[in-house]
Write a structure and sequence with these properties.
By secondary structure, the chain is an all-alpha fold. The protein has ten helices and no strands. Helices cover 81% and strands 0% of the residues.
Length: 252
């Protein structure tokens, strides 16, 4: 299959994650809360393992350690600024689905920030596929793993911001589709300047580390119940283990 088709397919699959909000319609609130925490834990482990065991080593094969470190830090700083300035919302808090938002414009701001986020995800997926098909699969898996809890949270935010559930699902899907656009742009840009790939990967690693360390892990520490904290830790380890398993299977 042509490389561009793989990229489009992977980004479309990522876009379909927007409909994960459908699951919350039939779940009891208690079950939904529990699953959300487990998804957060899994995502944190997968993102960190992906950054440290795959993305950073890949970048180090092409760039000096100091350069890789600089772009990782740059990724951390840029992701911090985007979240701060644009109110880039990752709703992973337990009980998030019960938080009332004051006005509908807040929901549109979440959609706008999420669209930018997904566009960057598309570029990251594209760069990973250009590096190797197996690395592209792995990166897509990590991004989808992160998107699941985020989209569950975003869906809840949109509904409580004034959207009907059907409209919230549709708008969430539209914001996810910017990932496809990012993938296409990333493909043609990377083809023109292939030397940019290790820089983009280093930047992406910084973003993954920021999301996991600043957004996901702090939510896990807020869990007061020992039993739920134990299960979330196990899902955190499973996230790390799954990434390592893919590394052994595909040797990426």
């Amino acid at each position: 299959m042509h490389l561009l088709l793989w990229i489009i397919l992977a980004t479309l699959i990522n876009g379909l994650v927007a409909f994960v909000g459908v699951l919350s319609l039939s779940l009891k609130a208690k079950v939904f809360k529990w699953l959300l925490v487990m998804f957060v834990a899994f995502s944190a482990g997968a993102l960190l393992a992906g950054a440290f065991f795959h993305i950073i080593p890949e970048a180090l094969e092409e760039l000096p350690a100091m350069t890789v470190s600089f772009f990782i830090l740059l990724g951390l700083v840029v992701f911090f600024l985007i979240e701060r300035v644009l109110h880039w919302h990752h709703c992973h808090e337990e009980g998030c689905e019960t938080h009332e938002l004051p006005t509908k414009p807040v929901s549109y701001l979440v959609l706008f920030g999420d669209s930018i986020h997904n566009f960057v995800d598309g570029i990251i997926i594209s760069a990973a596929f250009i590096t190797s098909i197996s690395f592209g699969f792995l990166t897509t898996l990590m991004i989808v793993a992160h998107e699941i809890p985020q989209e569950l949270g975003d869906f809840a935010v949109l509904v409580h911001g004034g959207f009907k559930k059907s409209k919230a699902l549709l708008y969430n899907f539209f914001s996810q589709l910017t990932c496809v656009l990012g993938g296409i742009v990333g493909y043609f840009f990377s083809r023109a300047v292939e030397g940019m790939i290790p820089y983009v990967l280093s930047f992406a690693a910084g973003g993954f580390i920021y999301i996991a360390a600043s957004d996901l892990i702090p939510q896990l520490h807020k869990e007061p119940k020992t039993s739920k904290a134990f299960f979330s830790f196990m899902f955190f380890i499973i996230g790390i283990g799954l990434v390592l398993l893919f590394k052994m299977l595909f040797e990426v």
